[in-house]
Amino acid sequence: MPVTDVSHDMDTLTLTIVAEFAAPVERVWQVYADPRQLERVWGPPSYPATVVDHDLRPGGRMTYYMTSPEGEKYAGYWEIATVDEPTGFTFDDGFAHEDFTPNPALPVSHNEYRFAAHDGGTRATYVGTYPSADALQTVLDMGVVEGASSAINQIDALLAP
Amino acid sequence: MAEDDEDRADALFHALADRTRRDILRRVLAGEHSVSALAAGYEMSFAAVQKHVAVLERAGLITKRRNGREQLASGDVAAVRSVGSMLTELEHVWRGRISRIDELIAADDTTDNEES
Q1: A3-159 is classed in which CATH architecture?
Q2: Residue A15 is nearest to which of B22, B75, B90, comparing CB atoms?
Q3: By Cβ atoms counted within 10 A, which residue in A24, A28, A69, B13 is the most buried?
Q4: Is the pTM of this model over 0.70?
Q5: How many Å separate Cα B112 from the centre of its chain?
Q6: Domain locations along chain A
């Protein structure tokens, strides 16, 4: 089970996830430095991601879209703030129009990813912060469909005999 | 007030006690569907599916709007989801991502041999 710790901060709307990977820090960094690897891990198989622009440098942009099972495309962008290769980077993650210009009507989350050598592998810490409960709701509604299905799965679990 | 909550819980459990209704709810939570598109997915009449949709609507789980001759149903995610569960949902998304990273890294070992 690679996820070792999860914390929810309801006051700051921050989700922190700690995971441990059986690979050196440089290898984990490659997942983010290589757009073909990044798109394989970003979206679920039912909602594949396609990375278009990829410039993992301070001030750089990453653009991507996710394709729903119905064939609808949801575009997003990362605006890279700081980069400390290979130990981490910070960025804002927002929604975009079809031409990848940021859509300011939709929320932007602030993210910090850190990778540190630990026990012969890598400890990755992912911190995502959302500006408001409404923003969190929008993020979950906009293509993070796994979220909606997990909400209903919770109800299923409740009803399971 | 408490009585209202109990009534709502009754409606909610009644609505979710049926497998087809849970399936309809899953589909409309993922996006708006017309009732006829929903009906196409089941071995039952359009009228029967319409009834299921009405039960879900009375329970406050879905909302309907008209668009010309179509009735469009969408899941009221807020009704299904408490604010406190949203971070949990996001966590679920992240667990998926992390297991995919894990698989990607694990696949290196099998391709290393080809590189030599």
Answers
A1: 2-Layer Sandwich (3.30)
A2: B90
A3: A28
A4: no
A5: 41
A6: 3-159
Q: In which residue are the tokens 């394989």 written?
A: A40
Instruction: Write out the residue range of the structural domain in which residue B71 sits.
Output: 3-113
Is the Cβ of B89 closer than 8 Å to some Cβ of chain A?
Answer: yes
Which helix (H) or strand (E) element contains residue A43? none
Q: Could you report the per-residue pLDDT of A38-81, keeping only the tens digit for each?
A: 998 888 777 889 999 999 999 999 999 988 888 888 899 999 99
Give the total number of structural domains in chain B.
Answer: 1
Q: In angstroms, what separates the C-alpha of B43 from chain A's closest C-alpha?
A: 21
Q: What is the pLDDT of residues B20-44, one digit of tens each?
A: 998 898 888 878 999 999 999 999 9
For residues A139 and A44, what is the distance between their CA atoms, to the nearest angstrom? 16
* Residues in chain A within 8 Å Cβ distance of B112: none
- Set of chain B residues whose Cβ sits within 8 Å of the Cβ of A144: 89-90, 93
State the sign of the Cα–Cα–Cα–Cα dihedral A41, B108, A60, A64.
Answer: negative
* CATH code, domain with B88: 1.10.10.10
A27 touches A122 (CB < 8 A): yes
Which has the closest alpha carbon to B73: B105, B26, B113, B115? B26
**Contacts (Cβ under 8 Å, ≥6 apart) of A29:** A85, A86, A87, A115
**Which residues between 47 and 66 in chain B have a beta carbon less than 8 angstroms from any beta carbon of chain A?**
none
Contact A148 B98 (CB under 8 A): no
For residue A60, the distance in angstroms to the closest alpha carbon of chain B comes to: 23
- Chain B closest CA to A77's CA: distance in Å? 17
DSSP H helices in A18-63: 25-33, 35-42
CB pairs under 8 A between A and B: 121
Q: What is the pLDDT of residue B17?
A: 81
